[in-house]
Fold:
Amino acid sequence: MSYYSETKRNFAIVAIALILIGVLLCGIITEGFREWNPYCWFGHEYGEDGICAKCGAEKPVEEPPAEEPDDGGLQVDPDVQARGMRLNSVKIPRPQFAEEGISPLAESAQQLTAVITPADAIEQEVDWTVAWKNANSTFATGKNVTDYVTVTPTSDGALTANVACLQAFAEKIVVKVTLRSDTGLYATATVDYEKRLLGFDFAISNSALNWSMTTSNLNPEVAFPMMHSTSETSFSEDWGYWYGDASKNTITLNVHYSIYTVDKDYSSLTISVAPTTQYINALKAAGFTVNATAGQYKQLWSDEYSATPSFSYEDLFYSKIASGSLDTYNEYVAMRSSLRQNISSAMLQLKIEVDGDERDAVTIYNLKFTAESVSPVVEDIVLNPGSIKF
Structure:
């Protein structure tokens, strides 16, 4: 092949490659332009339908965070005592319970592994037992330890066994693994139960309205404010006086804890509120501009765990989830009417949560309004006939 022909062929190859690269870049740029419309370089403006008003892009679906396996309050401290062997432990995620032969009713589980020294010892079969550390303690007396913690070898004589926690306990438990051929060779692990916060009873009250909720009923019915228009004061002033002042409220939280062998501190407390679709419709009927989507929590209060919460009913009803205010009695009537049309539905979700380092605790109340509190109110009164003659 001549030098000219070879050069021509190489040029053709380079040209084709450049064309392909150009096509690829055009596709990337075109797709990028669609994704990064210059009108939205500084952020999309999604409407309630999830569509951007400026470029028409759909709001991406937010994937919920992956749930961490709940290890309950179970704590296993291996190698408390050891003669000739030692123990290692690892948590068993709940999705693996069935695979490991653990009851789905178990609160949490860990797998223990006995390590024999030397590793090539002829005798490798062991037996596993579980017992109260102090069987005569106030809590343990008369109780079967296996009602609280069980240990099950993965096979007869196996060096691995599954420890399952069935419920909270208040006396330490000891798991022991013993060499079958020589009971003088063993290792133990102490099993503890860490204090758990199980939930909050919540109450907020003032001289006009009282809400009280308990963890035995997470779907309570509460009263919506009863208001009447007067000639002496405007509706908005009257509403603000009773429901807009946090200092007029008394908020109490009664905490439920598990029994335990190990105490635990909690660092912070947060209270949030989220509207349901039905409540959003009620706010719109009253002329509010809603700035939260259904199920989106807005923070009412957050502080140290030991602090006393403080917020107003007005925060609960709308000021944290919508812009605007109840200025007229007619707006109030319209809101009540919308609530009444959805009387069987939850309207607000109240979330109380604490930060417990590795473990948080959350209580969520789904609030409905009582039928009586959103029943029709008197809007007008007319006397007929308008005149009387005697």
